[in-house]
From TrEMBL, chains A, B:
Broad class of where this protein is predominantly found: cytoplasm
Co-factor: note: Binds 1 Mg(2+) or Mn(2+) ion per subunit.
Function description: Catalyzes the oxidation of 3-carboxy-2-hydroxy-4-methylpentanoate (3-isopropylmalate) to 3-carboxy-4-methyl-2-oxopentanoate. The product decarboxylates to 4-methyl-2 oxopentanoate.
Known partners and oligomeric status: Homodimer.
SMART domains in alphabetical order: Iso_dh
GO cellular component: cytoplasm
Record field: catalytic activity: (2R,3S)-3-isopropylmalate + NAD(+) = 4-methyl-2-oxopentanoate + CO2 + NADH
Pathway: Amino-acid biosynthesis; L-leucine biosynthesis; L-leucine from 3-methyl-2-oxobutanoate: step 3/4
GO biological processes: L-leucine biosynthetic process
Protein name per Swiss-Prot or TrEMBL: 3-isopropylmalate dehydrogenase
Domain Isopropylmalate dehydrogenase-like: 5-342
Binding positions (Mg(2+)): D219, D243, D247
Matching PROSITE patterns: IDH_IMDH
Length: 348, 348
């Protein structure tokens, strides 16, 4: 038997509620197998910041780095100034652990309500770069608060950083039935970064002759996402465009209550981190009504990443079945009821 | 009688086709009034670049600057490298003429096909900043083409630039029945630029006590646009976020075939420029099947900007009636037929 050694950052708001269900389903899918789960909770987020002023210390980082993977619920509450926990905790984890592949699948499960009248079959994955772009924190401002203020934000893109994520995206496209990769950027305006991305995709494509490549400007990509989302298979894009597109992608596939994500360090040098795309939703926290499905699907992504593909698939099928069972069923279930239902399905 | 002295940049692809219909409707709405129209064509775009290598010379700029307003069709063809005409012509015009208000209304006309199952009433306007952000061209790259390449893009935001566009957006919100303004940014990550935008909106709101203010991160805004677009009244945002959101907004309100825009210099120091949001659509150019409605609506925006609000409203009503007449009518009309139909409605 082996032990899956998880760092758990439940976080704020609905975070702890949905994480509990994610772990419940994880236990259920591993029950009877030779894999045991060990979880270590880390008290990070708004509560800790309010109490101590700390976001993520070097000690926290060093301790979390020892684990095999990280499960994160959600971070933030309205009492913390904007940017403090995002930059000081969430993005710090992504950057410190070199999560250069931010993986966000979008699947429209049968029966899921979507705002689109005629979505077609939607099954694509966004490979969002996670360690560069305008997220690097290389901005600054002068004369703040005066009429002469200048505030700059710098998007940093390197051949090193772009190539590794593009290569990862090609490999994922190669492994999928449709074998199609779409680069999304804005190279007609952001000419320097855009041309680096474009040249890199062109160069790497030589190593993946079976993968069809196309390109969309980010503005046009939003049109395709609502008019013809089934055209997409694998999208590779930068950190900011990926942030925007994946929220839109979540919206058309049933909302962020279902959207899972992985912050992946493919090289295995650091633990990868899995989290629902949604936030801490303070308005519904503590009511037991948050949908834990996105966290459960994030657990499946984690298992896939760790090589337990059979268990990952079982969770995904259980979720699909659970969602199908929701159709026409007007009773709203609580967070734990949904977790229980999915756990029961994976178990048996 | 007075003469409306227009510079016309018909451009490439479907540009000349749709501009012809825009001018036809302009003539029709002014027929019998004391306003005459004088148009001066400027040969700019892909054709000129292929022939001469020029995009926009100082002489072109000086000549165009003499006109009262500019009507632009569309720029670009696949034979021109990405960025050349965008940066060298389209954005150069916007920057040279200080078009700091990029105005993009989104109205879902009754009967227009939308990808949304249940859009509700959609009637908002995006006030996109037009002279700053990552569009300023302050990027650069080193070691291009090597494994050590670094390509940066800089978003520049100034108190001067942000305040004037925010003030314009508040004034527009104040003039609308709902009097609501939504700032869209990403201040939890782009903290310097984001906080400048946020502080500016807060400060300017003191001068517009009747206007309700709210905020959405750009990623969340894309969700609202597909799930609840009627929540928006006036959106104010930066150049890049505005580019992305307005394509999505166009998609949900019937597509870029209907989306109009104005690149406005509110101070009147330079001519403002009106153009459909769509591009040159080389695939359908010359076939006479492009929908000229976006250009016609851009002409209406121009008249509104020039104070001819009655004529602008007449065009908008004619377009609404023309669109309503399309419902259930399967015959596809040609570009000129649509122009003729709208012209007939404004005339009579
Ligand atoms: C909370 C925020 C920093 C984060 C991001 O922008 O990446 C979130 O929107 C996401 O998509 O995970
Ligand atoms: C063509 C391009 C430079 C332009 C922009 O990005 O502003 C276009 O997308 C638009 O929205 O007018």
């Amino acid at each position: 038997t082996r032990t899956l050694d998880l760092a758990v950052i439940a976080g704020d708001g609905i975070g702890p509620e949905v994480v509990a269900e994610g772990l419940k389903v994880l236990d259920a899918v591993l029950a009877g197998s030779d894999v045991a789960v060990a979880t270590t909770p880390y008290e990070l987020g708004a509560k800790r910041w309010h109490a101590t002023g700390e976001t993520l210390t070097d000690e926290d980082l060093a301790a979390i780095a020892q684990h095999e993977a990280i499960l994160l619920g959600a971070i933030g509450d309205p009492g913390v100034p904007s940017g403090v926990l995002e930059r000081g905790l969430l993005l710090k984890l992504r950057f410190a652990f070199d999560h250069y592949v931010n993986l966000r699948p979008s699947v429209l499960y049968p029966g899921v309500p979507t705002p689109l009248a005629d979505p077609g079959e939607v099954d694509f994955v966004v490979v969002r770069e996670g360690t560069e772009g305008p997220y690097v924190g290389n901005g600054g401002a002068i004369r703040v608060g005066t009429a002469a203020e200048v505030a700059n934000e710098v998007s940093v893109n390197t051949a090193f950083g772009v190539e590794r994520v593009v290569r990862d995206a090609f490999a994922r496209a190669q492994a999928r039935p449709r074998k199609k990769l779409t680069l999304v950027h804005k190279h007609n305006v952001l000419v320097h970064a855009g041309h680096l991305w474009r040249r890199t995709v062109e160069a790497v494509s030589a190593d993946f002759p079976e993968v069809t490549v196309d390109y969309a400007h980010v503005d046009a990509a939003t049109i395709y996402l609502v008019n013809d989302p089934s055209r997409f298979d694998v999208i590779v894009t930068d950190n900011l465009f990926g942030d925007i597109l994946t929220d839109l992608a979540a919206a058309i596939t049933g909302g962020i209550g279902l959207a899972a994500s992985g912050n992946v360090n493919p090289d295995g040098e650091f633990p990868s981190m899995f989290e629902p795309v949604h936030g801490s939703a303070p308005d519904i926290a503590g009511k037991g009504i948050a949908d834990p499905t996105a966290t459960v699907l994030s657990v499946a992504l984690m298992l896939e990443h760790l090589g337990m593909t059979e268990q990952a698939a079982r969770i995904q099928e259980a979720v699909a079945a659970d969602i199908a069972a929701r159709i026409g069923n007007e009773t709203t279930r609580s967070t734990t009821e949904i977790g229980d239902a999915i756990a029961a399905r994976v178990a048996g």
